[in-house]
Amino acid sequence: MTNHVPHPNHDRGLEFDLSTMMSRRSLGMFFGAGGAVAALAACTPGGSGSTAGTTTSAATGSATATGTSSAAVSAAATPSASPTLTRAIAECGVEIPAETAGPYPGDGSNGPNVLTASGVVRQDITTSFGTGSARAEGVPLTFTLTLLDNANGCVPLAGAAVYAWHCDRDGRYSLYDSGLTGENYLRGVQEADANGQVTFRSIFPGAYPGRWPHIHFEVFESMSNATAAGQVLAVSQIALTQAACDDVYGSAGYEASVTNMKRTTLRSDNVFGDDGGIYQLATMTGSAGTGYTAGLNVTI
């Protein structure tokens, strides 16, 4: 389907979700974990709420937040940290903005619940599992999230879990779109390692009308909490860079995305538009020919 049209209530925002999804899980999602409504405001490990020292580059589609003294202490206290983690800790300071999970979460808050299904814990999410058999085709994309605990000096959130999901190259979501209700590809759960990192192997999502290309994710305190569809620590989205999107959307199968990209910008997007997505914009490398990698620091 190249003329995919999202649900009329698609990604209308946190306030809309709060007023319409009043189930136990959705309440836990937004009000649990220490009053997560406060997570809407970006803050530093020192709790000042300042975003000073943040630099962005519209030309390269990148964003960097400067670190703090507590972040430096955390880096020093993690002798086995990889260079990627050390850099992430040094840049920690602004909590990931809270966003809507949208109408297609598949977490039990709006219809199907893939989190309790056997097989959802996996790194490669390109195929369906269980009774599903479809495979999502497209340019390979590997993305890594680095989870950091803002309240404890930005130490890695080892043992936390992430549920990630996104649309296919036609802009369709498994479990929801016509012909895909029996499929569950492009959805999976991973447990954070000692460095607080989770990695998924997937395909580059398409651009559909009204939204900037993105990946949804939910962070849970533990794997057992995730697979029981329990309380969520954070709900947010990854924004993909324009340079990567422009490159990939020149590939076969992404034709509709070229037109859709022309109608939306990060600033006009109803999720990323409040700050231009600077705290959710992935760092990306690669090419359409060889595949892309993406990384995002997620401070909670």
What are the key terms here?
300 residues, alpha+beta, Protocatechuate 3,4-Dioxygenase, subunit A, 5-stranded mixed β-sheet, 4-stranded antiparallel β-sheet, 22% strand, globular, disordered N terminus
What's the short version?
The protein has 300 residues and is of the alpha+beta class. Helix content is 18%, strand content 22%. Helix 3 (69-76) packs antiparallel against helix 4 (83-90).
Description of the structure:
The protein has one domain (14-299): Sandwich (Protocatechuate 3,4-Dioxygenase, subunit A), CATH 2.60.130. Helix content is 18%, strand content 22%. The chain contains 7 helices and 11 strands. The strands form 3 sheets. Strands 3, 4, 7, 10 and 11 form a 5-stranded mixed β-sheet that branches. Strands 6-5-8-9 form a 4-stranded antiparallel β-sheet. The protein has a two-stranded antiparallel sheet with strand order 1-2. Helix 3 (69-76) runs antiparallel to helix 4 (83-90). The N and C termini lie far apart (37 Å).
